[in-house]
Design brief:
DNA-binding, binds zinc ion, Arc Repressor Mutant, subunit A, 22% strand, homodimer, binds manganese (II) ion, four-stranded mixed beta sheet, Dna Ligase, domain 1
Chain lengths: 143, 143
DNA sequence: ATCTTAAACGGAAAACATTTCCATTTAAGA
DNA sequence: TCTTAAATGGAAATGTTTTCCGTTTAAGAT
């Protein structure tokens, strides 16, 4: 009924209850989710949800530009909703103090540019830092 | 006998035959090596080399600043020799045409700078592109 | 309202990379 | 030599992701 169906259908995918729930989950979530996160949440609604189905759906949704696959924080994969379906790659930063993950909108690299003698085709980055609220709390923001 | 012993000893580690061979391997290798790569090469000299020992050694050598651990190219870890023991982090680029991996020496990010409202503590990056020699071969170097 | 079929599904098992455990060996300093 | 903490190999565990396969289902056509 909500908005998820449109997105799924527009991507040329079947609208299934599981898939609808997954997209809704990301639409509501403020943070990237791991396959395990998604699976746990799905089990609340579908007692027989399987992890392979979750992986399949997340990959499919990423291929269709609905989700973005985040790698590089540990060996655990995460996915985030694309701001608009089909919008490009993303970069993220994790706060070492509170674990929060945010999307970084600026990027200093652009595909096509020359880097170390290579013509750049794609790039991924992972940042670690201290978020604004943790900075102010712990007062190690300056000096 | 060669230079490896000094490096190992200077790091406060025992000089064992396996460890000496590992450091020598990296000193001779022009490219980063996976734990599996290292293990295969070790088996040529030590028929009873174990993979856990390889992992242990690579991590130990990385902790001591002799090797640098490269993550983010697929789910396979790689290690490269640090230009000088204790030199900082590295970034790498892989050629999608020939698979070659090179170290990138310039970097546009610096820890301490502000990124997306966070104070940056560390960062990793992985680049994909086409290397100079593949660029000239396939003549898709310009426009 | 059925029929048909490719897509999607769940469950079990496999595939991999990495880690843990533990008993044995060994480098290095006394 | 002697002593001991560090290092080692092998087996097994871990944790994530993938593959296989038989069953179910969404969606378009009848
Ligand atoms: Mn970018
Ligand atoms: Mn850097
Ligand atoms: Zn924080
Ligand atoms: Zn190349």
């Amino acid at each position: 009924m909500p908005h998820s169906d449109e997105v799924i259908r527009a991507a040329g995918l079947k609208v299934t209850p599981v898939r609808r729930a997954i997209v809704a989950l990301f639409a509501e979530s403020l943070r990237p989710l791991t396959p395990r996160d998604v699976h746990v949440r799905l089990l609340e609604q579908f007692s027989r949800s399987g992890l392979p189905g979750v992986y399949r759906n997340l990959e499919t949704l990423a291929e269709r530009g609905i989700l973005f696959r985040i790698a590089g924080f540990g060996q655990v994969r995460r996915y985030a909703l694309c701001p608009k379906p089909g919008s490009g790659h993303q970069h993220h930063i994790i706060c070492v103090a509170c674990g929060r993950i945010d999307r970084i909108d600026e990027c200093l690299y652009h595909d096509g540019m020359m880097v170390g003698g290579y013509r750049l085709l794609s790039h991924t980055m992972q940042f670690e830092g201290v978020c604004a609220s943790c900075l102010s709390e712990t007062n190690n923001g300056q000096s």
